[in-house]
Specification:
191 residues, mainly alpha, 8 helices, 6% strand, three-stranded antiparallel sheet, single chain, binds zinc ion
């Protein structure tokens, strides 16, 4: 990625550690990838079945049950790299608590690997992964990030506030807007 952003670097590191660590075609791989790709909660990812997933224009849209029609969008690039497809999800779910525990353990293991690989010292866990995904959305969507309300609902402002900023997304620090405009090219200052 040619944008200099420590948060995107962290997300890339986390994502590549996840791809290295998670067994191919496993349930935990699919669930953790939905978490990092869709900015989902653990409760959401462990409730999704094949019938909740829809391929649309190279995206994969996942509609977690009980979320009022809100959805988790996986981008075409993410879908291509991860090779996720609706058939990766089960037809039904039985033990959500057990699946959630497996996802939490996997996130902790990936966090440890990221610490070892990068020396990054930061809070880990699911909320950090969601924050990094939201930061990536800020890069991707910029001023249009509000469209994600269809995906994340009323939680969106809180999620974006937790996403962190970097020079590339810090639009409110545009100094040109802060320089007072002069009425003429040369104004004599009084005292
Ligand atoms: Zn950034």
């Amino acid at each position: 990625m040619d944008i200099d952003c420590p948060l995107l670097d962290e997300l890339d590191a986390w994502f590549s550690c996840a791809l290295d660590l998670l067994p191919p075609h496993s349930a935990v791989r699919r669930d953790v990838l939905l978490l990092v790709g869709g900015g989902a909660t653990v409760e959401e990812v462990v409730s999704v079945t094949a019938g909740d997933c829809e391929a649309f224009l190279d995206h994969l849209i996942v509609f977690p049950p009980d979320s009022d029609g809100r959805s988790l969008p996986l981008t075409p690039a993410f879908v291509e790299v991860t090779e996720l497809e609706p058939g990766a999800w089960p037809l039904s779910r039985d033990d959500a608590a057990a699946a959630a525990a497996v996802v939490e353990e996997a996130v902790a293991a990936i966090d440890r690997e990221v610490f070892l690989a990068t020396g990054l010292s930061r809070p880990g866990g699911v909320e950090r992964v969601r924050a990094l995904r939201m930061h990536a959305w800020l890069h991707e969507l910029g001023a249009h990030v509000g469209v994600l309300e269809a995906n994340y609902g009323p939680d969106l402002p809180r999620l974006l506030a937790a996403a962190g900023t970097c020079p590339a997304v810090r639009r409110d620090r545009d100094v040109e807007n802060l320089v007072p405009a002069q009425r003429t090219t040369r104004v004599a200052a009084v005292a």
